[in-house]
Amino acid sequence: MAAIDARGDDVVLTLQDNERSLMLTVFTDLAALLAEDGDGDDDRPDSENWEARLGLVDRPRPEDPALLRLLPDVDPDDEERSAEFRRLTEFDLKQAKAHNVRIVLLGLSKGNDIALTRDEVLAWMKGLNDLRLVLAVRLEIDTEEAQEEKYAHREGLSESEDLTLTLYDFLTWIQDRLTTTLLDQRQGDDEI
Known about the structure:
Layout: E1 3-7, E2 10-14, H1 17-35, H2 50-53, H3 65-70, H4 79-109, E3 113-116, H5 118-138, H6 144-152, H7 159-191
Antiparallel strand pairs: 1-2, 2-3
Helix pairs in contact: 1-4, 4-5, 5-7
InterPro entries: AosR (IPR018561)
């Protein structure tokens, strides 16, 4: 089972082989989701497309509900305002989320004992949150009541849904432990 401990200024996440392999897979999937370009009008990736980077081209509203959850409308009741906001902010938001995922994947590539600096812990927490949001959409968990309903009727879930819910729980536990460990370290710094 995974373990998270503070060691000096670092936080060390220790994973079993199967946990690390699973996390590599799902974070690679998240990176691919963030890299999807729904526009199709330009063969250049966004990172090389200055017009997209500067907010000079329209950004299509994501069709995938999970991607829409990561890149939501600023005002669901005002399509024009949401489109304008998306045009001006989506590139930077996607890049920030992708950067966090790259930090997670880099950490996972180093082996089962992953030493994280405070900045890396923050990136992991954000990446874990984004992945949990994607899984919640896939599980149709959009409210606390919907989540309670999933757990109350877990025995009726398909094997795939049950495994996804288990993964959701595992990622929630890691995010919670990273957060708690980081807060404990900060409180320890304040006491010095």
